[in-house]
Amino acid sequence: MNNRNLDLFLDGPPVGAGEHPPPTPPGAVHPAVRPRIWTVAQVNRAVRLLLEQTLSRLWVAGEVANFSRRRSGHCYFTLKDDAAQLRCVMFRREAARLPMDPEEGMTLRVFGRLTLYEARGGYQMVVSRLATESDGGMWKLALERLRKRLEAEGLTDPARKRSPPRFPRTVGVVSSLESAALRDILSVIGRRAPWVRLVVRGTRVQGEGASLEIAAAISILASRGVDVLIVARGGGSVEDLWSFNEEPVARAVAASPVPVISGVGHETDVTICDLVADLRAATPSAAAEAAVPELEAVESTLERLAQRLGSALSARARSRRRRLDRAHVALLRRLHRLEAASRDRLERGRVGMTVGVRRQLRHNADRLAAAAAAMEALSPLSTLARGYAVPLDLEGRLLRTIRDFALGQDFKLRVVDGNVSCTVTPPPAREAPEAAVGA
After folding, report:
1. pLDDT band for position 18 (cuts 50, 70, 90)
2. d(CA 167, CA 195)
3. Angle at 210 between CA 208 and CA 212, to 5 degrees
4. Would you tell me how many other CB atoms lie within 10 Å of the CB of residue 127?
5. In Å, how far from its chain's centre is CA 179?
6. Do the strands 170-175 and 197-202 form a parallel or antiparallel pair, or are they unpaired?
7. For the whole model, what pTM was predicted?
8. How far is the C-alpha of 296 from the C-alpha of 287, rounded, in Å?
9. How many Cβ atoms from other residues are within 10 Å of residue 323's Cβ?
10. Which of the two residues, 136 and 282, has the higher pLDDT score?
11. Any idea what DSSP says for residue 417?
């Protein structure tokens, strides 16, 4: 502390060198020393300056208590040990970089400067960095806590992970537009699979709010008809990669309807995004290689497929030919059986029809003979055969009574074997007056 700062704490102006103030009665103020009256603000300002200029920045260890994050983003807590406690504040800019809020009773190491809040006269430490006593600090603790929660929900279960398509047509990439990681991905895919369509969604990959942007980019690209997604950024510190360790990114990756390949950081960097993704690649370039096949591999695969297709078609053709041959033989056998059965039915039908026709003919002949006999019995010819004759006029009308016969009339007399021509003549005188019929 220099003399100028010491002067702030004197009650009056300094006494000149070699001078001695005159003796002063008890209870009285020496007239050479005029007392200075300080304001409260001056006192607090002097103490603040004394603290800030006397003590440099330092690390302090202790247990955290009453940690709270205000709406303004500032964090307030108390650091204590068995004998004392120290009030601390961490302003919004530094607090935003914390991966999690410390738990009550957690042992912390904080780095910052001591100061006095003049408005209240409160002695406190302004913290710029905060770490745990364990290896990895707050970052490792927050990462492990989120990993366990996601693991309990099954989001890191290998059984739910999907294999990327072997031959994607469209690949989506979520990364910074200015990053070397994106340039590496474009170079690898352009070399290995120039026919693949690329859809890139640029986003911030670190800093406050970057995780929400990454999650939104994943959701947007997954709904744009891509076949596989690559989420990538280059290497960096734990703090640089922390956006990929936050829950929004993990949820977006797990909810993606298409497989997601994570290519975040270097091979030694493991993030929550890596654990939830369907496939973890060591680097962004490795992610691009995993997303698309190499041109030579595609050509080799096409050749194998062509051979397999030719063999399959030949085998299928042979199988179909054998099936057709068997069907042809079976059809011929069936036709022969049907022909023989039809021939048998026709023969049986012919025999049955012949028998039936003969039976019907005999029946009809019997009926005809009976009818003929009946007709014969009723026929006038049968009467004529018994010696009778039937008179008919020349037109064939039957002459029944004497009035039908006129004198000199010609008529026919039908006998059993023909007709006899006759003429009506007058009867002889000696006979009765009845008309006489002469042949």
Report:
1. very low
2. 10
3. 110
4. 21
5. 33
6. parallel
7. 0.53
8. 19
9. 10
10. 282
11. T
